[in-house]
Amino acid sequence: MTLPLILAIVILVSVFFWLRSRRSGRSLYQTPRSTSKSALQRQTRRELLRLTNGNQAVAQRLVERVREQHPDRSEQWCWEKAIYDIQRDRRA
């Protein structure tokens, strides 16, 4: 095959996938959002409890500390930040 033919095929395939992603309303790299907001919050809370070995008092203290440091952030963000902090500290 010649180089121009290969380039033409690559461009056609790229345009096809680009148009397909535009029609579906999402990028090829985005994952579909099938979980609701409350399910995500439940999952986040469950993950923090798992990381604290089920100790709800510790989990709540961690979230409260994050909330005090970042009062402008949402509750969901505070829980996610507490999870991130635990994971970061355990890697160190």
Task: Describe what this molecule looks like in 3D.
The chain is 74% helix and 0% strand. The protein has 92 residues and is mainly alpha-helical. The chain has a domain at 37-91. α2 runs parallel beside α4 (75-91) and α3 (56-69) crosses α4 (75-91). It is elongated and about 65 Å long.
Set out the fold topology.
Elements (H helix, E strand, L loop, with lengths): L2 H22 L12 H15 L4 H14 L5 H17 L1
Oligomer: single chain
- In helices, the fraction of residues equals over 70%
> What structural class do the secondary elements suggest?
mainly alpha
- Report the sheet with the most strands, covering strand number, pairing sense and barrel closure: none
The SSE order reads: HHHH
Approximate shape: elongated
Report the count of strand segments.
Answer: 0
Round the mean pLDDT to the nearest integer and report it.
Answer: 84
Q: What's the helix count?
A: 4
Distance between the termini: 53 Å
Low-confidence stretches: 26-33
Percent strand equals under 5%
Q: How big is the Rg?
A: 22 Å
Quick recap of the structure?
The protein is an all-alpha fold. 74% of the residues lie in helices and 0% in strands.
Any descriptors?
mainly alpha; elongated; 74% helix; 92 residues; 4 helices
